[in-house]
Write a structure and sequence with these properties.
Elements lengths: L2 H13 L3 E3 H8 L3 H9 L6 E2 L5 E4 H15 L4 H25 L2 E5 L2 E8 L6 E8 L2 E8 L2
Antiparallel strand pairs: 1-3, 2-3, 4-5, 5-6, 6-7
Pfam families: MerR_1
Keywords: DNA-binding, Repressor, Transcription, Transcription regulation
GO molecular function, one term: DNA-binding transcription factor activity
């Protein structure tokens, strides 16, 4: 995706407002509506009024609820689950931004799909790839002329 396509998609995604009702979030995540209200009262999640209607949750909040609930199921307390969900969100934000900044496309390297992360030197002689194999991802530097 080139910069122009990325900017167009970013503008589009900011205009689109996906909002879910509390029942939809409860059904999708397995967290009861009363629990969602409690989490919101404690400031762990947020809803908003859309067109003066009942509380609506963004797609981002749906993911947050899912993450918190997953951590609770793993045995974490609610407070620890909220903290871990916040840390996970920050990690994903950094990964997303780094991929947006560096992503140059998908190519084949040694017969495997590879993420081109662009030149890794000022002279533009070496390209950094993440080569995705069945047993994991390798890093490969490929000389370019």
């Amino acid at each position: 995706m080139d910069t122009e396509e990325h900017d167009a998609f970013k503008a589009f995604s900011q205009k689109v407002n996906w909002h879910l009702g509390i029942g939809d979030v409860a059904a999708a995540t397995g967290v009861s509506q009363s629990q969602l209200r409690y989490w919101e009262q404690k400031g762990f999640i947020e809803s908003e009024k859309v067109n003066g209607q009942n509380r609506k949750y963004s797609y981002d909040m749906l993911i947050r609820v899912f993450m918190i609930n997953s951590f609770i199921k793993e045995g974490f307390t609610l407070a620890a689950a909220v903290k871990r969900a916040s840390e996970h969100r920050e990690t994903m934000k950094l990964l997303r931004q780094s991929m947006i900044d560096r992503f140059q496309g998908i190519e084949k390297v040694d017969g495997y799909p590879a993420v081109n992360l662009g030149y890794m030197d000022d002279e533009h002689t070496k390209v950094l790839y993440l080569v995705v194999k069945e047993n994991g991802t390798d890093i490969k530097i490929v000389p370019k002329n």
